[in-house]
Specification:
It contains 10 helices and 35 strands. It is globular. 16% of the residues lie in helices and 40% in strands.
């Protein structure tokens, strides 16, 4: 009980007393006002609004130990594009037949106001379907009946779970506004949890009360030579927490944002200790020492890195014994990239790297644990590094939570230099990670306690475009253009070419833009991954039939930034570019004889504090030719919300400058 009280204090700041508040939401309590609602007054643009979302988690001990999660949700549909809220998905997990989650008691109703009367339609159980998402994840899928603009829909269900390690999380915020979101959690004296709260919204209610309950318990007891199942009951004090948020705005996805789950208001729980009556306490991997030790003992993780006849044979075939360390690493990486095809699945565990190797296909864990094992086999200091992809969310650095990771790469050390390697894609150059992996920090799984390292690519993301063009008196433009790609932009282009084929890439490339026509496209350095990828082509734009008095030149051609990606006035979330970048454009125009420049855009030189971002624009006559230069440098990966206003204004200036035209007038 002393430990339980410590948990109370850990989650504290809450009064522990019986609260006086509204009863939990129950089905069938829809009001006339809710049915008559036409617009949500706090957000007139909302297509739908969550009127009430109620969840509760509690423990049962009649079939081992289970967590019982119940949820009831009421939603008002306000506009046609809010009808997708009538499609309900309930995910659940099944490890095997004995360890699983079970969705029960799914009930739903749709309410409409027709001719002044409330018409209620019940969800038919035959309309509930089950889908398998992958080996372990399933979902119940249903569509609420008779849902239309003006409807109020209600859904409730129960999930019984054998997995107490991660108590059910609760998302207070949604992609539509939420008027009331409430979660109640009953903590029993046997378990200790740590909770994580994310998001930027405050609690409307945060308190707790002590409940005295008697719970039925089933346990096994030896009677003679037999094990007999016994039933009993136990009285205990339950601490019930109540968390409420209200009037939450819709969470809208914004550009340069990682997973929205990083920023939506939600609560997660992690089990740290188990202690049943008259038993010794059992601690979970609540510290990094224990986490590293358990993970490296795990058959499907550290067990895959043990030297074997399989890895020894491949190492011998690679014949790198006499090569220097860097050459060894590059050869092993190239081998795995060529040998293996990624199945698109992000995983931490591998069932069997040999099996994946033989099939030439596997998950990120299959491929990169294979890479790590082979590097070790040839004498390289290599360790697996757990990361969370950008869409999966930020990892939690304060405590070990395996669920916060979904990917593994190889961390390699040669002398004083370290390299992060990923062999899932054939076009990833040495020392570079794909865009999906660029998400803050990764955890290197090594004894005694692992360590966090920043995830950064050695190359900036670069796009350089240059053109030499001639303007005709008719307005026709002809010339050549070269584009150079490095870093992530080169990887994306190569991957597209590899997947779709060079002809499709050229066709798609040539078809872009209505005014400008690309012809005779040539691609250079396709296979030289450490070199920039280049495209060269002829560029033409049609003009009039006869010479004209005034020529209007679009100086940025088809590369103008026409829209500011940062539209909202204020932003609460970081701006995550993932990697520093450079966009450089240099266009040289030969002016037709007999014409002169009448209007030329003024130059611009903007720089944010500490030169974190910079925009330079210049249009001038150089050696009798018109030269236009635009350069945008993003010099750090992540900008804080406090830097948003300046960054947004820089892009405003860039868009405005790119929209300006140059006017040439025929001399009189």
């Amino acid at each position: 009980m002393k430990n339980w009280v410590a948990l109370v204090l850990l989650l504290a700041g809450m009064p522990i007393a019986g609260w006086c508040g509204q009863d939990p939401l129950k089905l069938g309590q829809v009001t006339i006002d809710e049915l008559k609602m036409k617009v949500y007054e706090k957000d007139s643009t909302a297509a739908a609004v969550v009127l009430y979302d109620y969840g509760e988690s509690a423990f049962e001990f009649t079939k081992g130990t289970q967590v019982v999660f119940k949820r009831t949700t009421r939603i008002k549909i306000l506009k046609k594009n809010g009808l997708d809220q009538a499609d309900i998905f309930i995910p659940f997990y099944q490890k095997d037949f004995q360890n699983r989650e079970e969705v029960k008691d799914v009930k739903g109703f749709t309410y409409n106001l027709e001719n002044g009367k409330v018409v209620k339609v019940k969800l038919d159980e035959k309309s509930i379907f089950e889908e398998k998402q992958d080996a372990n994840w399933h979902q119940k899928k249903l569509t609420m009946p008779n849902a239309k603009v003006g409807s109020v829909i209600e859904i409730s269900y129960t999930i019984k779970s054998d997995f107490i390690e991660n108590l059910r999380e609760w998302e207070f915020q949604n992609t539509i506004p939420v008027m009331w979101s409430e979660y109640r959690v009953e903590m029993v004296p046997f378990f200790e949890y740590t909770h994580l709260l994310s998001g930027f919204n405050s609690f409307h209610i945060k308190d707790a009360q002590v409940l005295h309950q008697t719970k039925g318990i089933t346990y096994e007891e030896k009677v003679g030579y037999q094990t007999v199942q016994q039933r009993s009951s136990m009285s205990m004090q339950i601490l019930q927490y109540r968390f409420v948020m209200k009037d939450l705005p819709a969470f809208t996805e914004e550009p340069y944002l990682t997973s929205i789950d990083d920023y939506k208001s939600k609560m997660e729980f992690m089990l740290t200790k188990i202690q049943y009556p008259n038993q010794e306490p059992r601690y979970m991997a609540s510290n990094w020492d224990g986490f590293a030790k358990e993970l490296l003992k795990e058959e499907n993780f550290g067990g895959q890195l043990v030297s074997s006849n399989f890895t020894k044979k491949i190492a011998e075939e690679l014949n790198v014994a006499s090569a220097d360390s860097l050459a060894k690493v590059k050869k092993v990486l190239a081998y795995v990239q060529k040998q293996m095809s990624w199945d698109g699945k992000n995983r931490v565990y591998s069932e069997n790297i040999k099996k994946a190797h033989d099939s030439r296909k596997g998950s990120s864990a299959d491929i990169n644990l294979l890479l790590t094992a082979l590097l070790r086999e040839v004498g390289i200091e290599a360790s697996p590094m757990l990361i969370s992809t950008r869409q999966h969310g930020k990892p939690v650095t304060e405590m070990p939570m395996l669920s916060k990771f979904n990917y593994v790469v190889a961390h390699v050390k040669i002398g004083k230099n370290t390299y992060l390697l990923d062999a899932t894609e054939p076009d990833v150059p040495f020392g570079m990670l794909p865009f999906r992996c660029l998400n803050g920090k990764g955890w290197v799984a090594e004894l005694p306690s692992g360590r966090w390292v920043p995830i950064k690519n050695s190359e900036r993301n670069v796009q350089m475009v240059s053109a030499d063009l001639q303007i005709m008196p008719t307005g026709e433009v002809v010339g050549t253009m070269e584009e150079t790609f490095q870093g992530i932009s080169a990887l994306r282009a190569r991957s597209y070419i590899r997947t779709k084929g060079q002809e499709e890439f050229i066709k798609n490339f040539s078809d872009k833009g209505q005014e400008w026509v690309r012809q005779e496209v040539k691609i250079q350095n396709m296979e030289k991954l450490q070199e920039p990828l280049k495209t060269q082509y002829k560029l033409t734009k049609a003009g009039d039939l006869q010479p004209v008095q005034l020529l209007y030149v679009t100086p940025m051609l088809n590369h103008a930034e026409t829209e500011n990606p940062f539209k909202i006035a204020e932003r609460l979330y970081p701006i995550d570019f993932a990697t520093p970048s450079d966009e450089v454009y240099v266009f040289t125009f030969t002016i037709p004889e007999g014409y002169e420049v009448e209007e030329l855009p003024q130059g611009k030189n903007l720089s944010l504090p500490n030169n974190t971002a910079r925009f330079i624009y210049a249009a001038q006559i150089v050696n009798g030719k018109l030269q236009v230069m635009s350069r945008l440098n993003i010099n750090k990966e992540v900008f804080g919300p406090e830097e948003y206003a300046n960054l947004r204004e820089l892009y405003n200036q860039l868009v405005a400058k790119h929209a300006e035209k140059i006017v040439l007038r025929k001399k009189s």
